[in-house]
Amino acid sequence: MTNVLVCIKRVPDVSGDIALTADGQGVDARHVGFTISDHEACAVELAVRIATATEGTATVLTVGTAEATEQVRNALAIGCTAATHVLADPAALGAADVAREIAAVVRDHEGQGRGHDLVLLGNDAADSGDFQVGIRLAYELDRPVVNGVSTVEVEDGSIVARGEGPDGHETFRLPPPAVVTILEGGVEPRYPSVPGRMKAKKVQIEEREPASEPAGPNRVRFTLPPPVSSDVQVLGEGAAAAPAVVDLFERIGVLSK
Is pLDDT of 29 > 80? Predict the structure, then answer.
């Protein structure tokens, strides 16, 4: 039996050009819908598959605003059987803050006798581009971690993660409990069915307040300097330009008299 916790984040559903907020710190979502990242959709699919194959449980977790309940219900409709929602403004949280909140949930669930043998996350956040949450969570919980794999299975009591590395196909075996981050492409995520959606509406979502004060994202905004204008000087044409070229080389120090 393997109990899986899969973490998702409500993000703008964007395609093509992405508009940023005025401060350049986030995606302008005023005119788009919301979803989860493709990485997380694959993580949800893997969580449901592992729970089903091992007769365990798949719990979905999000740290976000009340509107993120929509994405939690979708994960429940796909096959997750329980849900936890930490009510917080994700814009005010950095990667370390999110990792601490997830770790607090994992510890509380362990204390309640419903621990998680495996925590799955998307490889990176689709809106803020944070790649750090999985690593920080593993350090918070003192668990082994593998990043950026395509598939995860449980074989003979071990967590087996597979993906593509710089030298070809890679396989990792981890003792549970463990943390793994997922890249899209390894599995085909299923879509919520009508019966699944009806069943998901009946699931009681555990709502929590943040366990600690956030430190914030502390991002630094980089700006591109304006392009430096360049002047073009025509030195001449053909052989008649040779004296001017020699003079130029002398001025810039390529030739000396």
Answer: no
**Rounded CA gap, 11 and 43, in Å?**
15
H or E segment and range at residue 42: helix 38-54
Token pair belonging to 233: 């000087």
- Strands 4-8 and 58-64: what pairing? parallel
Question: Does residue 221 lie within any of the structural domains?
Answer: no
What count of Cα atoms within 13 Å lies in the side-chain half-sphere of residue 84?
22
* Residue 249 within a domain: no
In a domain, 193, yes or no: yes
Q: Can you tell me the distance from the alpha carbon of 109 to that of 114, in angstroms, rounded to the nearest whole number?
A: 5
In a domain? residue 246? no
Cα(20)–Cα(243) distance, integer angstroms: 53
Under 8 Å between Cβ of 42 and 189: yes
The total number of structural domains that make up the chain = 1
- pLDDT tens digits, 111-140: 999 999 999 999 988 777 778 999 999 999
Strand 118-122 to 145-149 pairing: unpaired
Assigned token pair, 193: 């069915």
